[in-house]
Amino acid sequence: MEAQRGAITLAMLVIYGLACIAVGLWALGRTRNSRDFFAAGRNLGVWVSSVAIFSTLLSGFGFVGGPGLVYRMGTSSVWLVLTSVTGYVLTFALLAKRLKLIAELRDTVSLPDAVAARYGSETSRVLTALAILLGVMGYLATQLLAMAMVLRDVLRDVPAIGEVSLVACLVISCAVLAFYCVTGGIIASVYTDMLQGAVMIVAALLVFVAAQASVEGGFAGMSRILVADDPESIGPWGSLGMLACLSWYFLFLLGTAGQPHVITKLMMMRRIADAKRILPLSLAGYTLSALLWIGVGLAMRALVLSGAHPELASPDAAAPAFLRHYAHPLLAGVVFAGLFAAIMSTADAFLNIGVAAVVHDIPKALRGRPLHAELRWARLGTVALTALAAAFALYSHEVNARLVALLGVFGAGTFAAAFVPVVALGFNWKRATARAANVALAVSLMLNLALELLGIRLPYGIHGGVVALTASLLLFLGISLASRPPVLERDIAAALDA
Amino acid sequence: MRLPALLFALACAIALVLAAAVWSGGAGPPQSLVHPEHPSLLRGGDGALRSAPIAVHAALFGALQIAFFGACFALGMRRGSSLGPVARPLWVGLLLYEGMFGLLLYGYARYLADPGAPLVLSFPLPTAVLLYGLWPLPLVFAWIYLRHFDDWVVDEAEIERVLALARPAPDEDSAPVAPSDPGRDR
């Protein structure tokens, strides 16, 4: 079976890809209008919502980047995982009820729709859509590139196929993604998330057990090796130190409630009462899947330090190297499918909210009404945005890597800085004003871009996103407190009071 | 103090702590070093030396952000201006959360003095506090949310009343109104 390792992994990916296409065809019949395409008719059940929420949040970063960070920094990056509980609890406490209420009251299909309804401001809609669009381009390009690279590595391990160009791998990956996103919109996205989430949980649990077994003495053995080399690396702050870890904690503790691809799902659940079951299910799913992050990272660091494994070319090679050398071929196949699933589940969510921004939100803000035949435009927009992001990813990979890095800053940190005050707090506080929301949105975008363009790095590893988040919180709260209470529509006021 | 004002005060305090840390940024040794034998790895080096200049900042930053989390949670859980049955468990949960963070700092101080101390549940003491204490402790807040979901968080009758506003209604229902009690929503 060892000789067939590459073929087994490829077979898993093919099965997974075909399943996604089948879901896309099934969802085609259920997508009758743009409300279905963008918001799944706001009629998702408990299980679908739960899995979609956690699998959307845990991207390929959780399967590759996360273990790589633990390998490189020790326990520092564990602080990102620790925010899972606080992040989910806060997101549900702040948004599950009131965001869903506003979605029902105003028949919204996107986050900018809800923001415009809450603040009664088209400027807020445009700024929200702009923040989403900028974030989506960076995120999506990175995810598409990651899919292509994973596929290329898998194909390389199959002797009968050998080397395939990155462009070809990108085209294949994007074709599968675009197919089910075009046919079924967000319905296909969330139902493929079900499949993707299940694969991710199984893969993560099995790998966690394999990681435990890969070092003599299990996690205690790993700890002893790490303490002997550098006690700080297995101490609570890892090799980055106290302020760096705490800045990550702050950013992601609050930031989960500002991730548009996640909170949009809260508008789609069938009933508000379902939140009671969705919270524990999605929290459990994320936590179980994140075990891979910690297990593989610590195991590979211990294996390299003890001389049992040669040094890795880069930290991102930690998970692939572990799978190749310490996991059963069948398990490796499941995990590679899980990795592909994790990347795709995030990419399809970004694709959908990005298309909503272009096809629904910006035209609605400019024209005062949606486009005619919006569903057709949504499908065309999905193809166009996929192609654009793929071209962008390829260009930045081959010619100018700084482009993706620049747009990459409009990622989790920018979403946190933009949407935690405006959405997470503003949907729970009647006194929050449209002016405060617009200033916070604009400043969060400009500050993140300025920090990146000027190459400003804060001392002690403090994440720049924390500065942007703190600034936008101060502006949002300060301006609102200093302003006269806004006059709200009766339904919005009632929703915020409920 | 009302919740948004408290949030503003906490955000100001966080900004001040971060500004003080950034201001003193030139002092002290680097936080991370490249491993001398394995360049793909980072080391922390001398923990006492690197943590000394920022220990107070870090303790304050951690305590403040937990308080900020608590205030945000309260903002989401309140109805009108009341926290109802949630208030007391929220305070207890917040104290536990702050206490666990304090225990982490205390454990780290002991770890710096004796890194070779016996492992606790496979990890050094402060890392065990982090993984088995600080990580799961916010489940207390999940419990509060779920425990009071039916009797406080979601009042079905209230939800129905609000949703009724979306249906075709007499003209007066669509007219903008000022908050009925300005003090209630601050």
Sheet with most strands of chain B = 2 strands, antiparallel
Strand tally of chain B is: 2
Rg measurement of chain A, Å: 22 Å
Residue-averaged pLDDT of chain A, rounded? Answer: 88
Distance between the termini of chain A: 59 Å
The total strand number of chain A stands at 0
Question: Can you list the strand order of the major beta sheet of chain B?
Answer: 1-2
Report the order of strands and helices of chain B: HEEHHHHHHH
What's the total helix number of chain A? 21
Q: What order do the helices and strands of chain A follow? A: HHHHHHHHHHHHHHHHHHHHH
State the low-pLDDT regions of chain B, or none. Answer: 169-186
| Estimated helix fraction of chain A | over 70%
* Poorly predicted runs of 5 or more residues of chain A: none
The CA-CA distance between the termini of chain B, in Å, is 10 Å
Task: Please tell me what the overall shape of chain A is.
Answer: globular
Write the layout of secondary structure elements.
The complex is a heterodimer of chains A (498) and B (186).
Chain A: H1 5-28, H2 34-39, H3 46-57, H4 60-73, H5 78-96, H6 98-106, H7 111-119, H8 122-156, H9 166-214, H10 218-229, H11 242-255, H12 260-268, H13 275-305, H14 318-326, H15 329-367, H16 374-398, H17 401-408, H18 412-425, H19 434-453, H20 464-482, H21 490-497
Helix pairs in contact in A: 1-9, 1-15, 3-9, 3-12, 3-13, 3-15, 4-13, 4-15, 5-11, 5-13, 6-7, 6-21, 7-8, 8-9, 8-15, 8-16, 8-17, 8-18, 8-19, 9-13, 9-15, 9-16, 10-13, 11-18, 12-15, 13-14, 15-16, 16-17, 18-19, 18-20, 19-20
Chain B: H1 3-23, E1 33-34, E2 42-43, H2 47-51, H3 55-77, H4 87-113, H5 125-134, H6 139-147, H7 149-153, H8 156-164
